Please model this.
Amino acid sequence: MSKIAVISGSPTSNSRLYGLVEYVEAKLTAEGHEVIRINVADLPAEALVKAQFGNEELQRATALVNDADGVVIASPVYKASYTGLLKTFLDLLPQTGLKGKITYPLFIGGTIAHLLSIDFALKPVIAALGGRVVLGGVYAIDPWIERLEGGGYGLSEELIERLDRSTGEFIEELHWQTVRSESLANQ
Model:
């Protein structure tokens, strides 16, 4: 099965974004995919900000993206775009760092007003890095995700339906990418 790198651009560990991320990771794992999460906030801040390409932790994180067949890019939306933290990490990827990779955006914001942040802020960066985007990804709003008392998250029915549909499309694209690669290798 495919290797999936999940890049989380959330600066906080209790963001509702993780309701989306954990749900999608569970679906991908249940389908047999290898899922590895990169929490950008856990990477060394000085190395990120100063673009220290030689930093071992940054090299390991970028190698995980390089080795992945698909990439989930997850971020809360601040000021009509994804976080600067996520942008800092994406800037460290090589110019073709997403070449041939299927990408799946997961965004969350306070209101529906920033719905187009995936299209206008993230997609141009993905394209510049050579990635392919599966449809529009999923944009959720905070009220659709509830923090549960015992930990974890409760997702609205509508959000679950959207995540199931988009994750299914992502899985299907990964399958066809594998079929195409195997077909080319056998020629």
Q: What stands out?
A: DSSP finds six helices and nine strands in the chain. The longest helix spans residues 157-185. The chain has a mean pLDDT of 94.
